[in-house]
Amino acid sequence: MKNRIIMVQDVQITVSFNEQNDYICISDMAKAKSGESRAADVIKNWLRNRITLEFLGTWEQIYNPDFKVVEFDHFRSEAGLHTFVLSVSEWVEKTNAIGMFVKKGRYGGTFEVDDMSKNRAFDSIMAGLTEAVADAKSNKPLLKRNTVTIAPVKAYSAEEVKQIRHSTGMSQGVFAGYMGVSVKTVEAWETGTNQPSGAASRLLNMMEMDKDLIVRFPFVTDTSEM
Prior knowledge:
This protein is of the alpha+beta class. 52% of the residues lie in helices and 12% in strands. Strands 1-2-3-5-4 form a five-stranded antiparallel sheet. The longest helix is centred in the middle third of the chain and has 24 residues, at 114-137. It is globular.
């Protein structure tokens, strides 16, 4: 991979790129907030957060057909516990993730695919890293905690996904467009190779409970001649 340097909000950020993707160095972002000596610890604290893992796992399930969902579910179940620790190298090795990697050397650090960073935006990443810095410096809870009850995410079998798609009258291609995923991802759901992510399962659940959902939210428009 080749490197280039960009300036974002007066912070020097390394971008590593190849023919397919650009990868943003989030280590540079952490250094800007906490200093070079604590950057690695900041990223570890950020990675052990359940919300962070949910986002990373969802992205991988959409764009990475070889992502190991079972390993991801294991990490997700432990995320947030005081005893839970996860490095980027372990995340990549155990789940076969492609959205992040660790690079050694002069322009080394932890890199995250640019598409993922754009989805969250620089300010959101910096805010998360800032919280991780504060968490690393103090054992006190950062936020006031409220207890809420959230309905569990329904797990859909391959046959159930097919039934929901058939009920909409959509082809796999159109259904993939409506769900915001690739056709390969829908094929993986319907063959049982992979399972819908939490966000995708929520949308499937809404489509299952509300037959008029695709009419009220017409993300896909029929442009065929009448």
